[in-house]
C-alpha cells in the first residue's frame, strides 16, 4: 500500500509540475503576445496596436507550417538543444525590443513588428514541444490538464500587469525561460520509447482513432478563429483596465472546462462545438455596436469562449497524437494551422472594417451577418456523424484496416499480393500506412511506398500493380517529393527508423 501511495504521489507531482511549466508558456503568450505590445506602441493614432500587433497572429500559423515541414525530417526533434536555444533567442530579442520601448527608446515600427512576430513563433514552438512531452506523461484527464495550465497562466498574467511597465517584458522572458527549463528537464526524464501509462499505472485504453475527424472539424474551428480574431482586435490597444478585464474573462473559461473534465472525464467535442457556435454568433451580432460597452462585454465573452476552445482543442490534439501512431510534433502542427489562420483572417477583417466604417457605416453589421451565416453553414456541413465518429473525437475503423487485438493496424493492399505472402513484414507495412497518412499519400502511393520500403524497383512494381512504368515513376516522384527524400535507400532508412507507436508495433509481432 505504501509503494502504491508513493507511486500515486509521484505521478501527481509529475502532472502538477508539467502543468506549471505549461502555464508559464501560456503566461508568456498573454504577456509578450498581447499585453506588452499593445501599449504604448503608438504607430496608428486610431488604434495603436493595429499596425504591428497583428504580426503576433502572423507568427503562429507560420511557425506551425515550419514545424510541419521540419517534422518530416527524420533528424528533427523539437526537444533538441538547438531548437530550444532558438526559442529562447527569439524570446530574448522580442523582449529586448519591448523593453527598449518601455524605457522610452524610439524603436522603428519594423523592429516592433519583428518583435511581435518572434513572440508568436516562440509560442508556437513552445506549444508543440509541451504537447509532445505531455503525450508521454501519465495524465488522467487531458482537458483538465490543459485547462488548469491555462488558468494558472491567466493568473500569472494578471500578476504581471501589476508590475512596472519596464519590468513586464523581463517577467515575460522569465516565464519563457522557466517553461523551457522545465521542458528540458522532462525531455531528459521521459522515456519516449515507452507506451503511455494512465494515472494508476495501467496501460491507457486503446483508441481506434485516426486524424480524419480532425480534418472534418477544422473548417468549423477556422470559422471560430475568425470570430476570436475580431474579438482580440476589439480588446488590444484599449485602456489597461478594459483590456485586462477582457483577457481575465479567459480565466473562468479555463477553470470551468477544467472542472467539468475533472468531474466527468473527457469533454464531448461535439458539445464544445455547439457551445462555441452560440458564443461566436452572439459576439458577431454585437460586433456592429463596436466600440460601445456592449461590444466590449461581448468581446470578453468571446475570449471566455476562446479559453474553452484552446483547452478543448489542445486536449483533443493531445489525445489524438498520444494514440495516433506517431510523435505529436509530426502530427499536430498541420492541424493547428487552420484555426490560427482563421484568427489572422479575423484580425485583418477588423482592420478592413475599421478603415471602411466611416464611408460605409453598416459594414460591421454586414460582416457580422455574413460570418454568422458562414459559421452556421460550416458547422452544419461538417457536424460530426455518430455513425462514423464518437462524440469524444475518436474514429471507428475504416476500410483497409486490419484488427490485431484491440488495436487497428492499417495494412496496404500490397500485403495481400503473392509477393507479400512470404516476405512482407507487418511492422514495415504498418509504418508505411502510418507515414502515408501523415504525409498525405494517396492509396495507390501507399501501395507503391510498401514496395519501395522493401527495395523493389519500378519495373517490379509495374508488374505487380499492372500499371505502366511511367505511372509508377510518377508515383515515386510524388512520394520522394512529399517526404523530401531523393533516393530509395534514404527512404528505406527513414521508414525503418520511424518510431512507430509501441502498441501498434507489439500488435504486429
Structural descriptors:
mainly alpha, two-stranded antiparallel ribbon, 20 helices, 2 strands, 2% strand, disordered N terminus
Describe the structure.
α1 packs across α5. The model is unreliable at 1-9, 40-49, 195-210, 386-422 and 502-507 (pLDDT under 50). With 509 residues, the protein is mainly α. It starts with a helix and ends with a helix. Helix content is 70%, strand content 2%. A two-stranded antiparallel ribbon has the order 1-2.
Quick take:
This protein has 509 residues and is an all-alpha fold. Helices cover 70% and strands 2% of the residues. Mean pLDDT is 78; it is low at 1-9, 40-49, 195-210, 386-422 and 502-507.
What do the pLDDT scores average to?
78
Largest sheet: 2 strands, antiparallel
Strand content: under 5%
Number of strands: 2
Strand order of the largest sheet: 1-2
Low-confidence stretches: 1-9, 40-49, 195-210, 386-422, 502-507
What sort of overall outline do the alpha carbons produce when their principal axes are compared? globular
Order of helices and strands: HHHHHHHHHHHHHEEHHHHHHH
- Helix percent reads over 70%
Radius of gyration (Å): 24 Å
Return the structural class: mainly alpha
